[in-house]
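Supplementary Note 3. Input sequence used for the single-chain structure prediction.
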Amino acid sequence: MALRALLHPALIAMGLHVAGVRAGRALFGHRRVEGSAEDILLAGLEACWSGEYLTASPGTYRQFWTRDTGFAAPALVRLGEPWPERLLPRGLA
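The predicted structure, written as discrete structure tokens, is reproduced below.
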């Protein structure tokens, strides 16, 4: 029964996605951003913005995670625009 649960199409699709991201990074390396530490961090935040919600990472984990957003919320509010409005997925704000 447990093995059957691992064969769920959603899990297979996520596994293939993660494997693809890892293969791309092995072949091409990590994306590099020029500039100051602030420029690099802001580029990372923008990369995590899906257009609808903040993701857990720009590549591997494309989901909205309430826990991660809760940890980051005070700092995102202090950063100011546009981050306070981006804290919750559209429709939940």
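Residues 34-93 form one domain. The chain has a mean pLDDT of 85.
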